[in-house]
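Section handout 9: paired folding examples.
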Amino acid sequence: MTKERRNQLIAIGCLVAGIAFLYIEGISGLPAIITQNAVLLKGIALVLLSIAAILGGTAFENKQRIALISGVGLAIGLGFLYLPIPSVLRGSAFHILFACAIAFGMTTTVRRIAATGAALLACIGFVFLYQPFFPSLGGTALHLLLPSIIVFSIAFSQKTLCERFSIGLIALGLIALCQPFFMLFYQTGFQLLLTGLTGFIVAAHR
């Protein structure tokens, strides 16, 4: 078995296992020990889906197919986030967006369009983060910021600029967490810090 074939099988296995762990709480008749650890299984699902996305973006030759599938996944994730659907599906939106953003950023051929779209989505995320009128939108800001910074950090042509922007977000997040004067700024410090760290790690290793 070649290394490429092995990675393909691992990617498929991680994808299937990740989806199973992600939606296991919606399956009736399971032992109590499984349903009681649904949160832990969702955390494992995020890791498995991320591994599947990374391997899927490197091991399969048909990059356009992976980009198309992950693009559809991003649309589905956004739909799960904002449409009136069952809670088990809404709870999987972040996992889908995160994993699909990795795969899409690695395989898309329209990098300029992808980077522009990711930047616009990040702007929407920042607007949602700081608007005080609809708290429910503020709760979804991180779901937009992390996938968008992942795609932007991979697809944007200027790696150094991505790193500098991410470092700026890290610094801004630390300042927000350390200052006691503006409560909204303080409350969003963690989101800024996590977004910056994610963007820097992705840009530094692309």
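Moving on to protein 2 of 2.
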Amino acid sequence: MNETEIRLPLSEYSFERRFDERGAIEWMQANWSKSFMFSALYAVLVFGGQRYMKPRPKMNLRRPLVLWSLSLALFSIIGAVRTGSYMVHVLSSSGFRQSICNQSFYNGPVSKFWAYAFVLSKAPELGDTAFVVLRKQKLLFLHWYHHITVLLYSWYSYKDMVAGGGWFMTMNFSVHALMYSYYAARAAGLRVPRPLAVLITSAQIGQMFMGLTVSALVYRWMQHGDCPSHMDNITWASLMYLSYLLLFSNFFYHTYLRRQSQDASANGNANAKTCKAE
């Protein structure tokens, strides 16, 4: 691979180059605890909103939902491409271990801006739930639990520039690129093949499994002194990813496997009744 090919994925836009990551990290170190305030306010609005909407008719909000999902899809796609380019560069030039342990994701070219954009985006992403509440859809525990814990962990981790962040953020950007594109298409009334929904949930499960793997490797390599993190962070990351893995696996089973089995059983009963009637 020649020098041009190495530099190509890491060519910076001016706004990425000018980004002050030191100021961003210092701000997060001083303000990360505000994520608890945002989470508490979110919980009050969500459950208070459900009570408020209970005697009222559901809202349609199709166009706002399309715009909301499309904007998050575009943000996630760009973020996945930019952070993915940086991660591929690190993997190809320094290897898998450095892609996990090297802190350059937080202050390196291209990725430094998108790392900060990622953690900040977890606050406005809480707005997803407004559409669930106002449209009076079923609010899953997985939905609001995931939003709160991702916000808390992202802000908590960014301030310390912990190892593994590059993998965590790039995976999340990539899965969200698929997920919000799917939501935008559904909100626009487009027919989306069912296998795509299965693929997205499978990707989420894979993301959680990889998150656990990265956390375990950070713990292992931290003992050698070259993988900066601390036990509190590794513990919270492991518990978070394990809970996600269980919740998304449960969702996958009940949404795709069990429902498919029930549908097949219902069709079988219908066929039996038809045969009996004949």
